[in-house]
Write a structure and sequence with these properties.
alpha/beta; TIM Barrel; 52% helix; binds SN-glycerol-3-phosphate
């Protein structure tokens, strides 16, 4: 499993990258706009936090392939090594993915909600395809099923494209995607932290701490005893 953070909040990214095995950051126009700061500053701050070379996915905003390709080229200068242009799975987007892949870009096809969109993007040369799990679940779809289908399609058609599942609101959605073979997930900070949270873990650790303190003293660690 490859974990990404799905946020443009550099402070949150810094805090979580210190704790968790995070491979990179994904952004989208909404997440960047939420920061209410100049776009280049938002991207530079994320890069400064995650370090040179870590994967940073930034979405193009043009509607036609020509603009998307030009955006990706300029974004590459801004983002540096580890840049992944995110390109939507429209017809113009597929055209842009083909051209960008030919130029050596590691493209992430985004706004994926159907397996055939993902297959087309994979054949066009996308390195990642990003299915939106919660958005599907919210309208009676099955996000994890879509992920499973994409994983299967990429395998049987011998495509190296990886799933980068996005849009999560529950731990169960993340679990279902992992069980379906999705190779990576991008999570907002609260969802990443929710993966570890469990009351039985908390109560179990509280019991250990109480028993230990009763025997050896409050605040004493094994370092004090060996
Ligand atoms: O980039 C796509 C992903 O961030 C969407 O997430 O929570 O807006 O459905 P959400």
């Amino acid at each position: 499993m490859i974990y990404f953070l799905d946020t443009a909040d550099a402070a949150a990214i810094a805090r979580l990258c210190d704790l968790y095995p995070i491979a990179g950051v994904t952004t989208n126009p909404t997440l960047v706009a939420r920061e209410k700061r100049p776009f280049p500053d938002v991207i530079r701050d994320i890069r400064a936090v995650i370090g040179d070379g870590a994967m940073l996915h930034v979405q193009v905003t043009g509607r036609d392939a020509e603009t998307m390709v030009t955006e990706a080229k300029k974004l590459a200068d801004l983002v540096g090594a580890g840049f992944h242009p995110k390109v939507p799975v429209t017809a113009e987007g597929i055209k842009a993915i083909r051209r960008l892949a030919g130029l050596g870009f590691r493209v992430t096809a985004t706004a994926v909600v159907a397996p055939q969109q993902a297959l087309m993007a994979a054949v066009a040369g996308a390195a990642f395809v990003a299915p939106y799990v919660n958005r599907l679940d919210m309208i009676g779809g099955d996000g994890a099923r879509v992920v499973a289908d994409i994983v299967h399609l990429c395998r049987v058609h011998d495509l190296g494209t990886k799933v980068l599942a996005a849009s999560f609101k529950t731990v169960q959605q993340v679990h279902a995607v992992a069980m379906a073979g999705g190779q990576s997930v991008t999570l907002p900070p609260d969802m990443l932290e929710a993966l570890l949270r469990h009351p039985l873990t908390d109560s179990g650790l509280a019991g250990f701490a109480a028993d230990w303190a009763a025997a050896y003293g409050e605040g004493v660690t094994t370092l004090d005893l060996i």
